[in-house]
Amino acid sequence: MPCAGNGPRYDECLTQEERRSIFNGIWLCQNCAKLIDTDPERYTVNLLQRWKAHTEELSRLELEGRELQPEQLYEGYFCPHCDTFSKKGVSVCLGCDADIYYGSTPAAWRQDVQTGMTTSILLCLVFFMLLPQWIDDFFGWKVPFFWGGNVLIVLFSCAVFTIFCGIFYAKRRDRTRQEQPPVFVRKRH
Question: Tell me, what's the pLDDT at 132?
Answer without folding.
Answer: 77
